[in-house]
Write a sequence for this structure.
Protein backbone atom coordinates (compact mmCIF):
# COMPACT_ATOMS: atom_id res chain seq x y z
CA UNK A 1 0.00 0.00 0.00
CA UNK A 2 1.42 3.35 -1.02
CA UNK A 3 1.07 6.24 1.42
CA UNK A 4 -0.13 9.60 0.15
CA UNK A 5 2.04 12.48 1.28
CA UNK A 6 0.39 15.57 2.70
CA UNK A 7 -0.23 18.26 0.12
CA UNK A 8 0.85 20.97 2.54
CA UNK A 9 4.29 20.72 4.14
CA UNK A 10 4.41 20.34 7.91
CA UNK A 11 4.90 23.47 10.02
CA UNK A 12 6.16 21.67 13.15
CA UNK A 13 6.89 18.26 14.59
CA UNK A 14 4.95 17.27 17.70
CA UNK A 15 6.81 14.55 19.56
CA UNK A 16 5.31 12.86 22.60
CA UNK A 17 8.02 10.85 24.32
CA UNK A 18 10.26 10.71 27.38
CA UNK A 19 13.98 10.63 27.97
CA UNK A 20 16.19 8.96 26.92
CA UNK A 21 14.16 8.22 23.77
CA UNK A 22 13.14 11.86 23.35
CA UNK A 23 16.74 13.03 23.09
CA UNK A 24 17.55 10.30 20.59
CA UNK A 25 14.49 11.09 18.45
CA UNK A 26 15.26 14.81 18.29
CA UNK A 27 18.95 14.23 17.55
CA UNK A 28 18.00 11.80 14.75
CA UNK A 29 15.58 14.31 13.23
CA UNK A 30 18.24 17.02 13.29
CA UNK A 31 20.93 14.69 11.90
CA UNK A 32 18.56 13.91 9.02
CA UNK A 33 18.65 17.61 8.15
CA UNK A 34 15.11 18.36 9.28
CA UNK A 35 15.04 21.77 10.93
CA UNK A 36 11.31 22.23 11.60
CA UNK A 37 10.38 23.50 15.04
CA UNK A 38 9.70 20.69 17.51
CA UNK A 39 6.93 21.01 20.10
CA UNK A 40 5.97 18.88 23.07
CA UNK A 41 4.70 18.73 26.61
CA UNK A 42 5.93 18.48 30.16
CA UNK A 43 8.16 15.47 29.50
CA UNK A 44 10.55 17.93 27.84
CA UNK A 45 11.06 19.58 31.25
CA UNK A 46 14.13 17.45 31.94
CA UNK A 47 17.68 18.76 32.18
CA UNK A 48 18.80 15.39 30.79
CA UNK A 49 17.15 16.37 27.49
CA UNK A 50 18.93 19.72 27.41
CA UNK A 51 22.27 18.01 28.13
CA UNK A 52 21.66 15.32 25.49
CA UNK A 53 20.84 17.88 22.80
CA UNK A 54 23.40 20.51 23.74
CA UNK A 55 23.97 23.56 21.56
CA UNK A 56 24.24 21.52 18.36
CA UNK A 57 20.76 19.92 18.49
CA UNK A 58 18.94 22.01 21.12
CA UNK A 59 17.38 24.66 18.87
CA UNK A 60 13.86 25.59 17.84
CA UNK A 61 12.21 23.40 20.49
CA UNK A 62 9.12 24.56 22.37
CA UNK A 63 7.15 22.93 25.13
CA UNK A 64 4.42 23.55 27.68
CA UNK A 65 4.98 22.50 31.27
CA UNK A 66 3.89 23.22 34.83
CA UNK A 67 6.18 26.14 35.57
CA UNK A 68 9.59 27.69 35.13
CA UNK A 69 12.04 27.57 37.98
CA UNK A 70 13.57 31.06 37.76
CA UNK A 71 13.06 34.33 39.65
CA UNK A 72 10.23 36.44 38.26
CA UNK A 73 8.42 33.60 36.52
CA UNK A 74 5.62 33.33 39.11
CA UNK A 75 4.49 34.97 42.34
CA UNK A 76 6.52 33.59 45.25
CA UNK A 77 9.17 31.95 43.07
CA UNK A 78 12.06 33.84 44.70
CA UNK A 79 10.95 32.72 48.18
CA UNK A 80 10.51 29.13 47.01
CA UNK A 81 13.95 29.02 45.39
CA UNK A 82 15.56 30.43 48.55
CA UNK A 83 13.82 27.79 50.70
CA UNK A 84 14.79 25.07 48.23
CA UNK A 85 18.43 26.18 48.36
CA UNK A 86 18.42 25.93 52.17
CA UNK A 87 17.60 22.22 51.92
CA UNK A 88 19.12 21.26 48.56
CA UNK A 89 22.36 22.83 47.35
CA UNK A 90 21.56 22.36 43.65
CA UNK A 91 18.96 24.26 41.64
CA UNK A 92 15.70 22.40 40.97
CA UNK A 93 16.12 20.18 37.92
CA UNK A 94 12.51 20.47 36.81
CA UNK A 95 9.32 22.38 37.56
CA UNK A 96 7.83 19.20 39.02
CA UNK A 97 9.35 20.14 42.40
CA UNK A 98 6.97 23.11 42.45
CA UNK A 99 3.82 21.06 41.87
CA UNK A 100 4.07 19.39 45.28
CA UNK A 101 4.64 22.76 46.93
CA UNK A 102 1.58 24.16 45.19
CA UNK A 103 -0.66 21.27 46.24
CA UNK A 104 0.15 21.95 49.90
CA UNK A 105 -0.29 25.72 49.42
CA UNK A 106 -3.65 25.31 47.64
CA UNK A 107 -4.99 23.04 50.37
CA UNK A 108 -3.71 25.33 53.15
CA UNK A 109 -5.28 28.41 51.57
CA UNK A 110 -8.56 26.64 50.83
CA UNK A 111 -8.80 25.43 54.44
CA UNK A 112 -7.98 28.93 55.70
CA UNK A 113 -10.64 30.55 53.47
CA UNK A 114 -13.21 27.87 54.37
CA UNK A 115 -12.42 28.15 58.08
CA UNK A 116 -12.70 24.38 58.36
CA UNK A 117 -11.17 21.12 57.13
CA UNK A 118 -14.57 19.80 56.05
CA UNK A 119 -14.07 18.32 52.59
CA UNK A 120 -17.24 19.76 51.05
CA UNK A 121 -16.48 23.25 52.36
CA UNK A 122 -12.87 23.11 51.14
CA UNK A 123 -14.01 21.82 47.71
CA UNK A 124 -16.52 24.69 47.45
CA UNK A 125 -13.75 27.22 48.19
CA UNK A 126 -11.64 25.61 45.47
CA UNK A 127 -14.55 25.90 43.02
CA UNK A 128 -15.17 29.55 43.87
CA UNK A 129 -11.60 30.90 43.87
CA UNK A 130 -8.66 31.20 41.51
CA UNK A 131 -5.33 30.30 43.08
CA UNK A 132 -2.06 31.81 41.84
CA UNK A 133 1.03 29.82 42.67
CA UNK A 134 4.41 28.72 41.36
CA UNK A 135 2.84 26.60 38.64
CA UNK A 136 0.43 29.24 37.42
CA UNK A 137 -3.16 30.13 38.13
CA UNK A 138 -5.71 27.42 38.70
CA UNK A 139 -9.34 26.90 39.57
CA UNK A 140 -11.83 24.07 39.31
CA UNK A 141 -15.28 23.62 37.87
CA UNK A 142 -18.21 22.56 40.05
CA UNK A 143 -18.78 19.04 41.36
CA UNK A 144 -21.56 18.66 38.78
CA UNK A 145 -19.01 19.02 35.99
CA UNK A 146 -16.41 16.79 37.66
CA UNK A 147 -14.19 19.42 39.35
CA UNK A 148 -12.38 19.79 36.07
CA UNK A 149 -9.19 21.85 36.55
CA UNK A 150 -8.59 25.03 34.58
CA UNK A 151 -4.85 25.70 34.81
CA UNK A 152 -2.37 27.93 33.09
CA UNK A 153 0.83 26.42 31.69
CA UNK A 154 4.32 27.78 31.18
CA UNK A 155 5.61 28.02 27.62
CA UNK A 156 9.33 27.28 27.31
CA UNK A 157 11.73 27.70 24.39
CA UNK A 158 14.97 25.77 23.94
CA UNK A 159 17.66 27.54 21.88
CA UNK A 160 21.37 26.68 21.90
CA UNK A 161 20.56 24.01 24.49
CA UNK A 162 19.31 26.65 26.98
CA UNK A 163 15.76 27.26 28.14
CA UNK A 164 13.92 30.58 28.09
CA UNK A 165 10.58 31.31 29.74
CA UNK A 166 8.16 32.66 27.10
CA UNK A 167 5.23 33.25 29.45
CA UNK A 168 2.00 31.78 30.73
CA UNK A 169 -1.02 30.71 28.72
CA UNK A 170 -4.36 29.15 29.51
CA UNK A 171 -5.64 26.64 27.00
CA UNK A 172 -9.12 27.29 25.64
CA UNK A 173 -11.59 24.93 24.00
CA UNK A 174 -9.99 21.90 25.65
CA UNK A 175 -11.96 18.77 24.78
CA UNK A 176 -13.37 16.93 27.75
CA UNK A 177 -11.61 13.62 28.45
CA UNK A 178 -13.64 10.43 27.94
CA UNK A 179 -13.71 9.62 31.66
CA UNK A 180 -15.30 13.01 32.40
CA UNK A 181 -17.91 12.61 29.66
CA UNK A 182 -18.86 9.19 31.08
CA UNK A 183 -18.99 10.63 34.61
CA UNK A 184 -21.28 13.46 33.50
CA UNK A 185 -23.54 11.05 31.60
CA UNK A 186 -23.88 8.89 34.75
CA UNK A 187 -24.74 12.00 36.78
CA UNK A 188 -27.48 12.96 34.31
CA UNK A 189 -29.00 9.47 34.34
CA UNK A 190 -29.18 9.27 38.18
Amino acid sequence: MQRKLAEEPADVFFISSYMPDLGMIIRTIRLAGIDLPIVGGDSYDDTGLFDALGEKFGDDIYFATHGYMAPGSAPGMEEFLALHEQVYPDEPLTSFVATGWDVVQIMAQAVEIAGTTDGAAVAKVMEDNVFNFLTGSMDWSSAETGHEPDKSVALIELQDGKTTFLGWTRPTDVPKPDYLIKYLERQESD
Residues 1-65+152-190 form a domain with the Rossmann fold fold (CATH 3.40.50.2300).
